């Protein structure tokens, strides 16, 4: 499909393999949010400890960082469909064991960490396979659909999960999560074509050196370095989500206001994904990546003034919309710029960086906010974002001008 052809959501969903991948990921995402609620309730009921409950929640996220480094390369070394199916089956088994009554707390922690660890090869295989399933301009629109779906599934999973867990036993909620993994694996196994491994045996580096090979590939390529930086920048700028409660208290809001602040970024992300994928021309998208990156930091600057709730929600929603557009296009161009044989490993390293920044930036910003206030901290994050985005945007402009065809969503061949 050429760069001048308009791509609709309907044309993306007309691809049967994408429908299978979309259904599998949506099920897993909703099930994961349900499981996080169930785990929080289960652990707190058993331990009566907020610290241990928080530790368990962290274990649903943090090990994915290590998995991204060490396991993403599996999706280059082995057929990607099979990597996704095996990851789903193993995660269903592990979370099913957590649901067994009387499992010791230490074992619960190990099992939950294993589920998070196995998320990395699944995601790497999925993201690496997506541009093959959606050739040409279908790919960026498919990313937009993924973003909208995942944000919606996350909100429904958290909100509906609380209601559901209140009505049933938390162990049942974990069994339901295990069932979503099995259903996801079934969608992938039956809905995707069999394909050989992307990397031939001759091209495969030793397993434990594959992460280093992926890092070297990115570091030696200026375009990939810039795109990686722009993607990581979007993770850094959403620090206001982690500071939602103290920020709301600072501007004089209550629990309802906290919920509105937290909902503003996902809402903006949905709008941004819809607008960028549907109404921005494929020829224009990579050209506006740099200006969008700069613009995504600007809405945080007025937060220096600690505006009221309505203005804050609008600013954070706008930041979410712009940041999502940056993430979509930087991800699309990054994926296209990496050879298919190394794509999963490179994407795994990229996702690991995002997870690290999302985890560390609220912690560091919280320490700063204790000293100077939350509103000023968010504003400073906006200034830092501009300092990073402006030279990155200029570097991307030079890189894109030198090799424009490399960064467009040109058709992959299988």
Nutshell version of this structure?
The chain has 414 residues and is mainly α. The chain has 19 helices and no strands.
Please provide a written account of the structure.
The chain has 414 residues and is mainly alpha-helical. It folds into two domains: 8-137 and 145-189, MFS general substrate transporter like domains (Growth Hormone, Chain: A); 220-405, Up-down Bundle (Growth Hormone, Chain: A). It is 78% helix and 0% strand. It is built from 19 helices and no strands. It has helices at residues 9-13, 16-47, 50-59, 63-70, 74-77, 80-98, 105-133, 138-167, 170-191, 210-219, 222-237, 239-242, 244-250, 255-279, 289-297, 309-337, 343-372, 374-402, 404-407.
Features:
single chain; 414 residues; mainly alpha; Growth Hormone, Chain: A; 2 domains; 19 helices; globular
CATH superfamily of the largest domain: MFS general substrate transporter like domains
Task: Work out the strand percent.
Answer: under 5%
What number is the mean pLDDT? Answer: 87
Separate helix tally: 19
Helicity level: over 70%
The total beta strand count reads 0
Q: How are helices and strands ordered from N to C?
A: HHHHHHHHHHHHHHHHHHH
The name of the CATH topology of the largest domain is Growth Hormone, Chain: A
Summarize the main sheet.
Answer: none
Q: Can you tell me the CATH class of the largest domain?
A: Mainly Alpha
How far apart, in Å, are the first and last alpha carbons?
15 Å
């Amino acid at each position: 499909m050429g760069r001048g052809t308009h791509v609709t959501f309907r044309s993306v969903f007309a691809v049967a393999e994408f429908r299978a991948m979309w259904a599998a990921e949506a099920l897993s995402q909703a099930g994961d949010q349900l499981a996080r609620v169930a785990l929080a309730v289960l652990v707190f009921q058993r331990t009566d400890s907020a610290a241990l409950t928080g530790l368990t929640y962290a274990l649903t996220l943090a090990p994915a960082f290590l998995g991204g480094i060490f396991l993403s390369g599996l999706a280059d070394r082995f057929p990607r469909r099979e990597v996704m199916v095996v990851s789903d089956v193993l995660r269903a088994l592990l979370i099913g064991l957590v649901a067994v009554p009387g499992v010791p707390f230490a074992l619960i922690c190990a099992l939950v960490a294993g589920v998070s660890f196995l998320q990395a090869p699944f995601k790497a295989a999925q993201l690496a396979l997506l541009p093959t399933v959606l050739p040409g301009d279908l790919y960026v629109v498919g990313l937009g659909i993924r973003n909208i779906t995942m944000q919606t599934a996350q909100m429904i999973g958290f909100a509906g999960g609380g209601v559901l867990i209140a009505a049933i036993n938390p162990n049942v909620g974990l069994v339901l999560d295990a069932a979503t993994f099995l259903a996801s694996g079934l969608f992938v196994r039956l809905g995707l074509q069999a394909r050989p491994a992307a990397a031939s045996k001759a091209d495969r580096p030793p397993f434990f050196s594959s992460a280093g090979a992926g890092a070297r590939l990115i570091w030696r390529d200026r375009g990939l370095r810039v795109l990686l930086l722009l993607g990581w920048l979007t993770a850094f700028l959403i620090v206001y989500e982690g500071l939602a409660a103290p920020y709301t208290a600072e501007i004089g809001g209550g629990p309802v206001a906290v919920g509105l602040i937290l909902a503003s970024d996902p809402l903006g992300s949905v709008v941004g994904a819809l607008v960028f994928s549907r109404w921005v021309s494929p020829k224009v998208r990579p050209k506006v990546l740099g200006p969008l990156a700069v613009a995504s930091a600007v809405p945080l600057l007025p937060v220096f003034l600690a505006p009221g709730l309505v203005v804050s929600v609008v600013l954070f929603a706008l930041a979410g919309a712009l940041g999502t557009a940056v993430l979509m296009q930087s991800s699309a161009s990054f994926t296209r710029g990496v050879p298919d044989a190394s794509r999963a490993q490179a994407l795994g390293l990229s996702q690991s960086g995002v997870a690290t920044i999302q985890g560390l930036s609220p912690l560091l910003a919280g320490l700063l906010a204790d000293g100077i206030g939350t509103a000023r901290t968010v504003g400073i994050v906006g200034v830092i974002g501009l300092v990073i985005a402006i030279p990155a945007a200029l570097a991307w402009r030079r890189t894109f001008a030198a090799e424009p065809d490399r960064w467009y969503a040109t058709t992959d061949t299988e």
